[in-house]
């Protein structure tokens, strides 16, 4: 079934502008077909590829790496090991990002817990303040310490 750019935009969640950008950047697995009047025609497989492509982008895969992956796909059978290596390399990168985000979340949760405790006790004014020359309260020391020390 032929789909218009508007239909693909609605189904993919991408704007018409983004679809044109993806086409210009060579990010479609198959070249976008056009009617004799120049209107773009898409197919179901284009929508399916866009779902994969947008996930790769949202995971931080660069446009250059996506293009490299697409080029391998376009070459057809015989380079599956190269595709697999590219995807494994990116998965390892994403796992590292997840670890970093988890560490950041742990720090945020620690700080939230400290603030909640101080607010409940009515001691929020004892939290660390960088304008103080000598932060001596235990709250000041607690707030500065990383989660594993508190």
SSE succession: HHEEHHHH
What portion of the residues fall into strands of 2 or more residues? under 5%
Counting DSSP E segments of at least 2 residues, the number of strands comes to: 2
Report the structural category.
Answer: mainly alpha
**Poorly predicted spans:** none
* Helical content (DSSP H or I, runs of 4+): 55-70%
* Mean pLDDT over the full residue set: 88
For the biggest sheet, the summary is:
2 strands, antiparallel
**Nearest-angstrom radius of gyration?**
25 Å
Description:
It is a single chain. With 150 residues, the chain is mainly alpha-helical. The protein is 62% helix and 3% strand. It contains six helices and two strands, in the order ααββαααα. It has helices spanning 5-12, 16-24, 44-58, 63-75, 80-120, 138-144, and strands at residues 33-34, 40-41. It has a two-stranded antiparallel sheet with strand order 1-2. Strand 1 and strand 2 (40-41) form a beta hairpin. Helix 4 runs antiparallel to helix 5. The longest helix is centred in the middle third of the chain and has 41 residues, at 80-120. It is elongated. The N and C termini lie far apart (61 Å).
């Amino acid at each position: 079934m032929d789909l218009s750019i508007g239909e693909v935009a609605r189904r993919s969640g991408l704007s018409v502008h983004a679809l044109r950008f993806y086409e210009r950047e060579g990010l479609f697995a198959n070249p976008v077909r056009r009617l004799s009047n120049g209107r773009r025609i898409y197919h179901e497989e284009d929508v399916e590829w866009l779902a994969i492509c947008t996930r790769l982008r949202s995971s931080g895969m660069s446009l250059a790496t996506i293009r490299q992956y697409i080029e391998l796909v376009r070459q057809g059978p015989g380079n599956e090991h190269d595709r697999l290596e590219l995807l494994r390399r990116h998965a390892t990168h994403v796992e590292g990002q997840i670890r970093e985000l988890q560490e950041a979340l742990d720090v945020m949760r620690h700080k939230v817990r400290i603030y909640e405790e101080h607010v409940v006790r009515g001691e929020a004014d004892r939290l660390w303040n960088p304008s103080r020359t000598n932060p001596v309260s235990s709250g000041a020391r607690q707030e500065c310490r990383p989660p594993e020390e508190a």
